[in-house]
Prior knowledge:
962 residues, alpha+beta, Cytochrome Bc1 Complex, Chain A, domain 1, six-stranded mixed beta sheet, 31 helices, globular, disordered C terminus
Amino acid sequence: MAVEILKPRTDKRDYRRIVLKNSLQVLLISDPETDKCAASMNVSVGSFSDPVGLEGLAHFLEHMLFYASEKYPLEDSYSKYITEHGGITNAFTSSEHTNYHFDVNADCFEDALDRFAQFFIKPLMSPDATTREIKAVDSENQKNLLSDAWRMNQLQKHLSDEGHPYHKFSTGNWDTLEVRPKAKGLDTRQELIKFYEENYSANLMHLVIYSKESLDKIQILAEDKFQEITNKDRSRFSFPGQPCTSEHLQILVRAVPIKQGHKLNIIWPITPGILHYKEGPCRYLSHLIGHEGEGSLFYVLKTLGWATGLTAGEGDWTTEFSFFKVVIDLTDVGHEHMQDIIGVLFKYIHLLQQSGVCKWMFDELAAVCETMFHYQDKSSPIDYVVKTASNMEIYPPQDWLVGSSLPSNFNSSTIQMVLDELSPNNVRIFWESKKFEGKTEMVEPWYGTAYSIEKITTCAIQEWMLSAPVVNLHLPEPNVFIPTDLSLKTAQEKVKFPVLLRKSSLSSLWYKPDTMFSTPKAYVKIDFSCPHAGSSPDAEVLTDMFTRLLMDYLNEYAYHAQIAGLYYGITNTDSGFQVTVVGYNHKLRILLEAVIEKIAKFKVNPERFSVIKEMVIKEYENFKFQQPYQQAMYYCSLILQNQAWPWMDELEVLPHLEAEDLAKFAPMMLSRSFLECYIAGNIESSEAESIIEHIEDVFYKGPNPICQPLFRSQHLSNRVIKLEKGKSYFYPIKGLNPTDENSALVHYIQVHRDDFVPNVKLQLFALIAKQPAFHQLRSVEQLGYITALMPRNDFGVQGVQFIIQSTVKGPARIDLRVEAFLKIFETKLYEMTNEEFQKNANALIDMKLEKHKNLREESRFYWQEIYYGTLKFDRKDCEVAALRQLEQKEFVEFFNEYIKVSAPQRRTLSVRVYGAPHLSEYASDKTESVSSNSVQIDDIFSFKRSQPLYGSFKGGFGYMKL
């Protein structure tokens, strides 16, 4: 029987549910406007199903299905096909399901789907590939070992019933997939095949297919490709019972994190919200407990100077069990007041108990959810199919698109039931801080997290409630930001690109009405270009503090707007700061004007200054715990970008900065500025102009103007270091965290300054080489889980970079492997037929012709052109035209001239970050005699001073003529 699937009012796509004869449930989505087609298969088998002693087997299987199948036996041919046709592919394993997905250019969807279907029909898990891929799983786990999120998540699982699958370690590593099974006489590959054959059954799968074609055509495709999947009629894995027994409740766990900072995780087992998704009990409670407006729990803790962040909501749930979590980021003072904070939290829960469940508040929340559902932005097909396939396992077909996003049945007793579960007698408190170092006696086995545990009684928590400070907690007021006018303005001018609507010595305004998306939303970006803001490390840090304090002051006011789908941000840039407001246009101007007023009347609150300063110092100190590949990317930017201050210098000045320094700095920073503005969406040109006129009036008019226009000499430019032709520069440096086993390499090849023809040659190289690089360096050589080749753009200077993180080889050795790969690739390139070349060029053309999905995506694209100063709004059309003209011979010449290992024009920079196992190599690599064209960078700043710069697109000749 056909089911009516509830969809957004603005959604023009067609949907159909079918069930194949093997019991596979399929949702077909027809979208004639799409450029990309996509599919997602959700299998109701996850890490909870791992056999005892083979932890990570479900996750390992997810990796293995990508390798090869009986029908397509060539290793990696699936991923290669997807990448060559403009697509991406990935998968993830969760506790109860595994999701596989891809997208691809529309013209080759059928072939891609055929390859994808073979994952579930006849995969080949060759012995050689199995052994190699265990290393990738191990490398993935290595990457997580120093991540506090992974560590704390596993600690919460560790402190649960050993007989419950929640207790398991889900990722797997070399030990669980190779060493231990071998010791027990088990063959991991045989276990893998057995696991696949026993668990992967068509009746446990849900598939979404998203295509340009009609529903009838997609149905034929689905039946043709997927009905060979065997139905073993398996019942869904279920594990009744709760993960936490009484010994795991009423506990206080002190844990030592890797990073600086203190955190409280307060967790209760509750009735799963999924059982009452129309009533939305958890949505209602997380709305109130996580609220940030006046009178809220967070507002009170923030005012006391105890907390810098708070989130609340359901996490880690299945249909059998669930947890409600409140996570609070603490200040140093807050850490000393842990008992008071728990006391205030339970006082707020008590207030909710006393107030009873509010119907008007539920109705307000339901109204916001309804508007958000019906006016949601169109997302990329791949994200849409993943979300929908995951929903299919859980919800009845009519709610596959909605999920639990539309609470509509007000039921006070259901909400009250979950509220009653948030009680002191079943709470679990996880308290993280470096201050516990050396004071714990236990260690979690998988990640090595040090912790201690003690029981806490209901009486103790009641005492904490009594001794907590008397504070004015109250429920939120009705939300004034909920949009009521969702009408669409008719764009008078059907413009394709942004137009320069207005220009003066104070500002420029780019404007683009919505001619694509028909949503009642707008996007406003105002870039304050202030030369004083980035003039020194001190200035940069003070600008950062300035933007954070503004966000802090506005938080309780703007939080209501955020709930109603209207978002804002104030962020510092290299040359000042930016204000962004995006969302429903109805009340956007009210919020924007409040933000502008706060900037104009900026005053430093010393108490808030010291809280923010403490937070920023911790963030800087935590830089050393970033992944080594992130450190390498940071050094690469520091070397290439002319206006960049090192984090070490900023960390050095930070402790000495006081509130009065910012009070003096802010007016000076604002004293000279230029506003670059972009306004787009459901907004008329006259309104856009009046917004900018208002902002100019606030800053530049009146008897004592806050800002003066910039002098011509002060317009800032973005300059990039120009590497010398034929030279290979390398920068060796020790990883910042001595306990990190990972090393990393960024091998960057700088090619040219933005120009359509070389752009497309470089992009085509990146497209053609991306998959072979991944296959060779990760799948075959198993250098490490993080292996990528991608284009790089620094303010319009184009290049390409290899990014690799590894425990098995040091960065100089990895560098040699990258060069070896380029030599293998060179041979392949010369052997490429014209037909193959054309196929790749066409795939890139299709990718470029892909339309923006929503206003945010479109605005980000145009804003980058404005911010970099390149102003090539018709970039896609021009690059497509260049690609259509491009001949294979020219492409090969480009490779020979700029990319290949001995290319005359080749300019490379290798940033090598050495992890713990490779420190002995660090010393020898530095002293090794280097070849004539190889240059070691010892000091980044002397190097930068000695190098020429590329011209800047921004503030360049003719750019700012007024």
